[in-house]
Fold each of these.
Amino acid sequence: MIGASDCADNYIFSDVPSSPVQPTADLYDAMIKFGQQPHTQLSLDYVMIENYGGGLSGHRNGGTWSTGVGNDGRLRNGIPFEPLCNCPGFGASWQTVTDAGAGETILMSEMWEGVVNAGMYDQLNFIEGGDARGDAVMADFARQLAEVVPSVRASAGVALGLSKLSVRLRALNMDGSSMDESMPSSAASLIAAVWEETPAAPAVFCAHMAVINSNITAYSSFEFILEGRAPPAGQRVTARRIFSPGLTVNISTGAGSAAPAWEVARDFIAPGLTNLYRIGCETATPDPDNLAANPTMEAPALSRMPGWSQAAYGDAEPLVTMTSDTSVAAEGRHSVRINCPTSKPIVFPLSGTQLVKPASDTSWGSKHVPPAGTRVFSSSVVLAPGKSYEVRLAVQASPPGTTVEILDGYWAVRPGNGSAIKEASPLLLADYHGSSIASIAAGQEWKHLEAVVHVPAATTHHNGTALQLRVSPRAGQKFGATVWADDVTIKEKEAAATA
């Protein structure tokens, strides 16, 4: 059952005796002792919090005496595990701000305050008057939350025995002198939270941190330090700001330290802004022999994946998207999500280094008509003649049974193109010609699509081999398919054997 609440006594919806008092049980325990269970059963299964108005300062309290009893923290009192949906929106203060970008910044930070203080990850925003700025902010928030969601998802299950990683802040004067030597968990107008995730590799520490400035008129300088667990031994952990230019700094003692410890780091934050930081989360060192573009798909969440796109050539399917996805990955933190909402097969370049340069507009001259039949490859990797290569990538798909293939092919320029059309132009008309060299029926688990490509010696008409991927929705699947790809390797066979 879904219902709305416009007050801070959400604990009254519980169907067991409850109160606004925080539970005495240690919420980090893997199993909470009998008799100390927090109040987890609600007559409402999903509570939508009418959290309107108040501005940033009205949402920054953590709900405890030390941070000031107030919103948004007290919305959690008595119900530590229940899903709450934050509804900041209708008639909110951000819509009255006319300075360019300032209103959007406030709305974004109001949503992050709900995450930090009350674990409200879901957001429902009522945008008064159809204000288009709100739509853009919601899209940006979704992208930001998706980037840190592996950390948030892990730390949200506080009863799973996770580490008690936390952060302390100390506000500084802009000249760097301290405003408060006690280094409290909340420094003046600043609030913060850190979430640790289970890393893909045991030796890799990975967490994300949010710092919010609830003062909408003043910059703030601050120090922060992590605590609650020791940093990993034998490595330095780096904190770097994501989604905005800024800090990259070591925050732990490094290799050779007898007792690894967290170190204090400094940064600044603009009025009303939220700074997001990635802490650790190092991915594999790039392999210089790998010809694939962005092989582990590292890119900001929900953004267009660099190196992955359709070859337009007049036949691109406008609804196909290729974006970064943090919800599933075979290697590193991301995969590329290829959404194909069409029943027809989609062919696109397997991007990478072009060891043989394709014919291009320089071949036909910038003022001449491209010759019909000229082979073009878009961003496809092009392998050198007379050599053999190993190609391997991880794929999964929904629905199961979606076919993913590696193709050896090219696009041939059609007759009828005008002059001054470059090879990379989406106005260039060309038809695809290719053959399948490896195929797999992808499903809901990662599978590896593999091929060994023997590139023939160069001739007048064939110099090098270009590779593409083809996604074919299952027969009768009129709504198309979604494919995830990750961990791409394209290496010369000899190099692969000796690596």
Amino acid sequence: MIPVGKLAYFRGRLTNRIHAMVLEQYDHLSKAGKINKTLLAKRIGREPAQITRWIGAPGNWTIETISDLLLAMGCEPSITVKPLDSENVKHTHVELIASGSTAETAKVFQMWPEANDAKGLPMLKVIAGADRRISCG
């Protein structure tokens, strides 16, 4: 059985990757003057305050939330799945890999299952940089 701490770690890791991907695209389009929270909200029938909450943290995002936000920005994610090898399960290197037209640096963390915090969750350590991309049409 997969330990609860490992399940929590991988859930949080995926949530944070998706949030970073969406936020990066929003920042890119916003800086280019192509989108703002009001326009994004109008495109998906929400209030700007809701967009602010979603962009601030991924706490209660659903797949529909992710789809709506990316569609409103004229984007869609490129998703790949890869197996974890035995070494990655022991010392997991978080690598964010997707294809697309924009690239920014993301932090890569290393999980050391033998070093847990007070709640029994794996400790994380920043070890390198990686590419993160989204494609826009």
Amino acid sequence: MNYSKLNDLILSELEKNSSIPNPKKTAKFLLDDLFWIHGISNPKTNAPLDKDIVNLALRWAHGHSDGKPLAYVTGLSHFYGRRFFCNPSTLIPRPETERLVETLLERCPNAKKGIEIGVGTGAISLTLLSENPDLILSGSDISNEILDLCRKNKKALGISDERLSLFLAKDNTDVFAPFDHIENDSFDFICSNPPYISPSDPISEDVLMWEPASALYAPKKTDYFYEKIALEGQKFLKKEGIACLEINSLRKKEITELFLKNQWHCEIVNDYNEYPRILIAWI
């Protein structure tokens, strides 16, 4: 079977699921990731493909057609022009989170040190490190499985261990404890895309079915992470340092008030769809 025939078969399989918004584009993503994994840079349209590659492609198409997120089918997600290995232990990186990265690069172009709370795949930290060669980061998450995935992406992107130190949090309530051994007042920024969904928020069934609840719902109360950062974050920041956090657009007012009452100044940045998405806070 050649590339053209395989593409047609994948497209036919994807079109069985009417909820896939752009089957042609999705088929291209699937095949691009497949060939990238197998080190094939320019598959010839009419050249025969290895049987194992064809079978894997068809399994992927069937899995996605059945409703499994493409990133969990292929084991790859795309963020800020780079590929990241992905698995069901972590949230799938979202395009709107790229706005967080852009905001940090704009506001802290000369940053030397930063913290990320909840690194997940490493998409935020590793993108920042790739874009700013002078930056050193410390990151945390709640399981060794997640940290190992981040390490895999770190290696794939050629980021050294010295530039990204990873620390295990004991659980989802353990916000700053992984960084307690680090000197206070030493960071240019704190960043995070923490769990922020409320049980009453509208959310798609696919997300609820496939993505980890620990990455969606905050422990104890919806604004738990924002409250902890508002109360404790300033001791980790330099005088000109900032907190840069993705927020639930439905809770802009409540989250901003948490920071304001703890003597922070605040600014909100909209995402690409003009929803309030990024909180910038400074003392």
